[in-house]
Structure formats: C-alpha cells, structure tokens
Amino acid sequence: MKPVPNDFKSVFADGILPRIMQANRQEYNSKKHDRPMHSHNSLCELLLCYRGTGIYNVNNDTYEVHEGDLLFYNVGELHEVVSTTSSEIGTYCFGFSNVQFLGMRKNQLIPDDSSHVRSSGSDYPLLASLCDRLLDLDSSDPMQAALIQSMGIAILLTAVRLPAEPRQQSALTASSELTFLVKDYINANYTENIKLEDIANALSFSASYISHTFKTTTGYSPVQYLIRCRIGLSQTLLISSEMSVTQIAAQVGYANSNHFQTLFKQVVGISPLQYRKKYLKNLHGDRNQT
C-alpha cells in the first residue's frame, strides 16, 4: 500500500490549499455571446473544452482550442476565448484564488515559459466527470460546499500535472513585433481617451501602417481591439459589482452611456443588463471577479 501524505507542503507554499471561488458551464451550441479581452487581479482560471472549437488569445499568444483541451490563465493576464462558429464553444470554467505552488507566484497556474493550452488526453473522462459532479453540488450545504472545494483541488492538480510543450512550439504567435507594441500600449491605456493617432505618435509609426499591420496579424483593427478590451472590462464590472451601466460606461472610457450600450450589443450580442442577468443566473460561487 502506498503511503498517503498527511499535508500539502510538498505542493503548495506553507501547505495552504487553493480555494475555488466560482464555477460555471458554458453550454455548447447556445447563441454566442463573446467575452472579449479581460483580466482578473485576484483570480486565476482553468477551463476545459468539452465540445466545439475556438481560439484562445492570452497576452500576445494565440492558440487553437479543441475538445479535451485545458486552458490555463495566470492572474493578471489579458485573455479571451472565441468560438470559431456562430455558437458558443462548450467549456467548464473554474476561478481559483489563493493558489501558490512551490517556487511560483501567487495565483500562477503554469510557468511563464509554458503553453497556456494542454491536451487532457486519457484524463479527459475523469476531468469531465469531476466537472459535472462539482457543478451538480449545492454550495449552500456545508458538506457539499466542502466537497466542492476538494473536487476543485482535484481538478486543478490533475490539470497542472499534465505535460506541456514550451510556449513557442504550441502558440500561433503573431509575427510582428509592432503588433506586440500596439497591444502593450492599448492594454496599458484602454480606459483612457486614446485614438489611433495617439498610438502612432507614441510608437513613431504612421497610423495607416500600424492599422494595416495590426489587422493583418490579429484580424482586428487597433480601434476594434481597443473596443474589445473596454467591453471585456465592462463585462467583469457587470458581473462583479453593483455599478450601474452608466457608471460602468464611464469607468471603461465612454462618457456616453448610449454609445457604450450600442458597442456592447454589437460585440456581445445582448445588452449589458441582459448579460449581467444571464451570467449571474449560471454562476456557481462568489460573484467577485477582480
């Protein structure tokens, strides 16, 4: 019989266990509602694709996503998952806090040089079963709530121990250094009143050259990317706060709430309030997504 360790100090700093804060299942084949570029300051996330195909953009890397793939998100990284069809990609999504593996930063799931996507391989049936069971549990019952935390840790440990190729071998990384610079500028300033000309002046390139290069490598114009970053942040605020739509519009860089709501519906497919209601209806766990 194998010995059973009596603590987690060989895995987690000080033996302190991570905490699963939220969980949800995005239903495959429902109408697609994009969740554009966004980040969290206190959560890391793990997603399992159970159906469909998509694209995972994280920082300056782009990955193809298929059934059975695990998607890792370290705290603070800008990321989005986009279905490659008109329907939602089917995913299980789990948000964790207080994760600190030995030798790694807090809320860092994978090393900096690791791929953000790994195949679950032969572990897929186990992971899918754990995900379904966890989401069926009632968090208001103390025993079931404790089981949710235990199963969340089991899912997390199963995922992070899977082999991963180095990032540069698995990522479809954009070839243009200029694209990286434009993204970095927008990511740092997207809540401000910036225009394409501001980006061009900051990087000492013509606006037309920047626009052409950026769209060639990303599929979006710089202005479209700016809008997606703002909408992504607004979605986080809608589901993690009680702020009004007008307050959120101002927070993400729009003085005109009506203009913001028009852009939101163009990107996401539904109004801000409809999005808030839809997300919170399916949420299991803490509303906080900061």
Write a concise keyword list for the protein shown above.
290 residues; 18% strand; alpha+beta; 10 strands; four-stranded antiparallel β-sheet
Describe the fold and architecture.
With 290 residues, the protein is an alpha+beta fold. Helix content is 41%, strand content 18%. The protein has helices at 124-136, 142-160, 167-170, 177-189, 196-203, 207-218, 222-240, 245-251, 257-268, 272-282; strands spanning 19-26, 35-38, 44-51, 54-58, 61-65, 69-73, 79-83, 90-97, 117-119, 284-285. A 6-stranded antiparallel beta sheet has the order 9-6-3-8-1-10, with helices on one face. The protein has a 4-stranded antiparallel beta sheet with strand order 2-7-4-5. Helix 1 (124-136) packs antiparallel against helix 2.
Could you provide a short overview of the structure?
The protein is of the alpha+beta class and 290 residues long. The protein has helices at residues 124-136, 142-160, 167-170, 177-189, 196-203, 207-218, 222-240, 245-251, 257-268, 272-282, and strands at 19-26, 35-38, 44-51, 54-58, 61-65, 69-73, 79-83, 90-97, 117-119, 284-285.
